[in-house]
Amino acid sequence: MRKAVFVHGFMGSADMWGSVVLADWLMGWEVHAVHLPGHHKDHRLPDHYNITSFAEDVLSQVQFGSNDTLLLVGHSMGGYIAADIAARYPNQIHGLVLFHSKVSNDSEAKRWDRARAIELSHANTSLYISTMLRNTFSPHNLTRVITNLSELIDSAQWRISHECIRACHTAMMNREDRLAVLDAAGIRRYYFLGSEDGAIPFSAIQEELKNIAEENIWLEEGCGHMGHIEAPEASRKFFERTFREI
Description:
It is built from 10 helices and 6 strands; from the N terminus they run ββαβαβαααααβαβαα. By secondary structure, it is of the alpha/beta class. The chain is globular, with a radius of gyration of 17 Å.
């Protein structure tokens, strides 16, 4: 079975994929927009706070089997989870689409930031959520997307606990670097990146991109970490072009 699996990012929800998962570009694929553990009131966290445990939960929702072929799409943390799956099952991967994400691991500075984020969330979870989500957008776009931002904050504050935040940051800061494995396996990768993305700075992932064809990298000028909201038309065009090629 050919299965297209969409994995949302930290604090997000499967709803972010909207009409993308219904598009005719995915004809012939069984489409799954999955929920990350801990991101809904009725969805518990995995026993172990690592990316592979999150990935196993995702695969259980898809009912992944040895005869399945996966097209993996991940936003932010969802991309880290998709990369983990691709690295462990390279012969069953049709393609890996990284939407504001990457396959390499955190720098030491980023790991420190995540440890600090856990402390801030413990002190005031609601304030941490609102601050973190605001910072995912380019400052130049905040006025234009203020309604979307308010909805994201309200939803996350209702759904996301401090323990979920701790679990996600712990998993992300300790994740394995999957670059060498995926390069060696020859898995096709496609990137949508923002020129003003503070979480995945374009300048910081040049080593990861050096073996990627230029036409497989979409850099959206003036966009932060939330292309589906900040640049919806560009995002749609990226997905249409990518899925038609895949």
